[in-house]
Design goal:
Layout lengths: L4 H21 L14 E4 L7 E2 L8 H5 L5 E4 L7 E4 L8 E4 L2 E2 L18 E8 L11 E7 L2 H4 L6 E10 L3 E13 L2 E12 L15 E15 L2 E16 L7 H8 L4 E17 L3 E17 L14 E21 L2 E20 L2 E22 L2 E16 L2 E17 L4 E12 L14 E3 L6 E16 L2 E23 L2 E23 L2 E14 L4 E2 L13 E10 L4 E10 L15 E11 L6 E8 L15 E2 L2 E2 L8 E9 L1
Parallel strand pairs: 1-7, 5-8, 22-25
Antiparallel strand pairs: 1-2, 3-4, 5-6, 7-8, 9-10, 9-34, 10-11, 11-12, 12-13, 13-14, 14-15, 15-16, 16-17, 17-18, 18-19, 19-20, 20-21, 21-23, 23-24, 24-25, 25-26, 26-27, 26-28, 28-29, 29-30, 30-31, 31-34, 32-33
Length: about 650
């Protein structure tokens, strides 16, 4: 393993602390119980239920989500985590952390996600916008962090977990969590995590440049339950990413060196999220209300770029995105005209404010204010057949340097579900869409050279899908499968084009994204396997060309095939697993542009749980076993000024971690 001696010592200490603490506690613990950790990931594109992702030792969102049908995560740098769903990027998705909107457009060389996979309790992915409860064009991702009360095991009032992990290519991390009951109805949790990253090597053994840095995350939560059906919760989530990073983190290290020699920019990428919530879990009515403030800020000391950058940028420059808002969603079960109804209703309010400064001079301040109210009724005509109808009103005000305009629309959704028998069901849905024009990115001075077309329209459209699910036990065998075919039409698609006066934001025509997701699984006793295939293709139907992202490359991700194999060996308390991901060549690209090349990766993992030392787990894994040289299709690809921009993924990576929960 390639590790600096001092970092090796720190990680070795963390791992050994996690192991040795169990040994010390062995004599004081007599009750064997389950270690409560890990992340469950659920998606409407798969029939399988939640999956425990603790095996993957994730330090990047791609570790959790890349094998979900219809989903990819681009970027290799800690600054560039970007989710892609059915060819839609972050700006067209509704992404929430504990209910707080993470919507932002910070800087075209970085992503907008500042999330730590280790502390996530669950990830709920809606592939496609299929309900009026969602606000996006392409789908939603809801991240939920762990709660102290849920970490407690039977009979416990207090607990703690220590964790240490090391990876050969080339990072190390550790975390400490303490949690417990402060009284019969008050619980609390404090969590801290640090990840140290060095410059990794790609599949060719080439070391990247300007990726070394440190990411830290702290989370504090306190919950109060005055009675069994009511819970109030307050949390503060602090995320810090700091390092001397290359100027263009979404490009390869070699390209950065070619463009700006060996210059690195001291960078801080921070997020502070405060949420307060109330949750009701009644027999006939349940729901949640959340108030939130989530601020994301990037600071770059670009004074080091003298002679390379424009003179007005050679200073300490900052950009801030601040989302303040509230959302409420409730569900009520009621009978109307002898039919059972599941009524879902709520509101969503977000005030997004962006500011930037160059040196001590404030450059701009822009904002959007969005509000929505929705109601949806799922009517059960029989216990096995239901129709869901919903309506939503959106109001979107854009107060920016380039415009001060209000957009609004009423959208609707209609869906049907039919359980033909205990094993087979079919479903179909259609949902009209609405989205106003985005604010410009916060960090760069585009407001000076960008203008909004005076006749610009909000994007509208229709997302439709049809599919089926099957599940059947045959003795100790179980087979399940799901298939979805979808088509998304967008009217008045908005894009940025260049003319002699600068950048013009305008409607460039209509767009179509279509494709499918197929997933099947087979299980027998302690063995479980899953195979999925997904495809999406996007086109500008007005010009009959591929849709392009902000970097001028095709939005599409090549056909993706994912295979997962798991086996639980009870005799030795160990889970063994294998994941293969095969991505086919993507040739739906702009004319005379390079295709996105095919690749395949294979990962191995094993997790051992001690039967004699309660709470001890040791996990081993190998990512990219074949040392494949590849670039995710959701990452930066292409060329500029004669240089290849491809953001190559890490090569073979051995991972070892130990945790002790007591």
């Amino acid at each position: 393993m390639k590790l600096a001696p001092n970092k090796h010592a720190k990680v070795y200490l963390a791992v050994m602390l996690a192991i040795s603490t169990q040994v010390i506690a062995e004599e004081t613990s007599s009750d064997e119980s389950v270690v409560v950790w890990g992340t469950s990931v659920a998606s409407n594109s798969e029939f399988l239920g939640d999956q425990d992702m603790s095996l993957k030792q994730a330090d990047h969102m791609s570790d959790l989500l890349r094998d979900i049908p219809g989903v990819d995560v681009g970027g290799t740098h800690s600054l560039t985590q970007r989710i892609n769903i059915r060819s839609f990027g972050e700006s067209d998705l509704d992404i929430r952390l504990d209910g707080a909107s993470q919507h932002a457009n910070m800087f075209h060389h970085i992503g907008n996600l500042t999330l730590n996979p280790d502390i996530l309790k669950s990830v709920d992915i809606e592939v496609g916008n299929n309900s009026v409860t969602q606000s996006s064009l392409g789908g939603s991702v809801s991240f939920e962090t762990k709660d102290g009360k849920e970490l407690l095991r039977a009979g416990e009032k207090f607990g703690a977990r220590v964790y240490g992990g090391i990876a050969s290519n080339d990072n190390q991390q550790g975390s400490l969590t303490v949690y417990g009951l402060l009284s019969d109805n008050v619980d609390a949790m404090a969590y801290g995590n640090i990840v140290d990253r060095d410059n990794f090597e790609d599949g060719d053994g080439t070391e990247t440049y300007g990726s070394a840095g440190q990411v830290s995350n702290a989370l504090f939560k306190i919950g109060y339950e005055p009675s069994i059906n009511h819970r109030f919760e307050l949390s503060y989530d602090m995320y810090r990413d700091s390092g001397d990073y290359n100027p263009r983190p979404d490009m390869s290290g070699a390209t950065n060196q070619a463009f700006s020699d060996d210059l690195l920019i001291p960078t801080d990428y921070d997020r502070d999220t405060i949420t307060g919530s109330y949750e009701l879990t009644g027999a006939n009515t349940s729901g949640k209300v959340t108030l939130f403030s989530s601020e994301t800020k990037i600071t770059r000391d670009e004074s080091v770029m003298a002679g390379v950058w424009p003179e007005d940028r050679v200073s300490v420059n900052t950009a801030t995105n601040h989302n303040i808002g509230a959302n409420a969603q409730f569900q009520s079960q009621l009978a109307i005209a002898n039919f059972n109804n599941q009524l879902t209703y709520g509101v969503d309010l977000i005030d997004q404010n962006t500011t930037s400064s160059y040196g001590v001079v404030k450059f701009m301040e822009e904002s959007t204010r969005s509000s929505a109210v929705f109601i949806e009724d799922k009517i059960y005509f029989t216990p096995d057949f239901s129709i869901t109808a919903g309506i939503r009103y959106d109001n979107f005000n854009r107060d920016a340097e380039t415009s001060d305009t209000t957009f609004n629309d009423i959208t609707w959704g209609l869906a049907a579900d039919w359980d033909i028998n205990d094993n087979f069901s079919v479903f179909a849905s259609t949902r009209s869409l609405f989205k106003g024009p985005e604010l410009l990115e916060t960090f760069i001075k585009y407001q000076d050279v960008t203008y909004l077309d005076e006749d610009i329209k909000a994007e509208t459209g229709l997302n439709s899908q049809i599919g089926a699910r099957f599940s059947q036990y045959f003795g100790a065998h179980i087979i399940s499968a799901s298939a979805t075919v979808f088509k998304t039409d967008i009217n008045d698609y908005i894009a940025e084009t260049w003319d002699t006066d600068g950048y013009l934001i305008e409607n460039i025509g209509d767009a179509e994204i279509k494709g499918f997701e197929i997933s099947t699984s087979y299980g027998y006793n302690a063995f479980l396997s899953k195979l999925s295939y997904s495809r999406s293709e996007s086109n500008n139907t007005t010009t009959d060309t591929a849709l392009l992202d902000g970097n001028g490359r095709s939005m599409d991700v090549g056909d993706s095939i994912a295979l997962t194999l798991d086996y639980q060996a009870d005799s030795i308390n160990t889970i063994f697993g294998w994941t293969s991901t095969i991505v086919l060549e993507e040739d739906n690209v702009e004319a005379d542009s390079d295709v996105k090349e095919a690749y395949n990766t294979h990962d191995l993992y094993a997790q051992w749980t001690s039967s004699s030392i309660d709470g001890l787990q040791i996990t081993f894994g190998i990512d990219n076993i074949t040392n494949e040289l590849y670039v995710s299709h959701a990452s930066r690809t292409g060329s500029a000024k004669g240089y290849v921009l491809d953001d190559y993924e890490p090569g073979r990576n051995y991972k070892l971690s130990a945790s002790y929960q007591f």
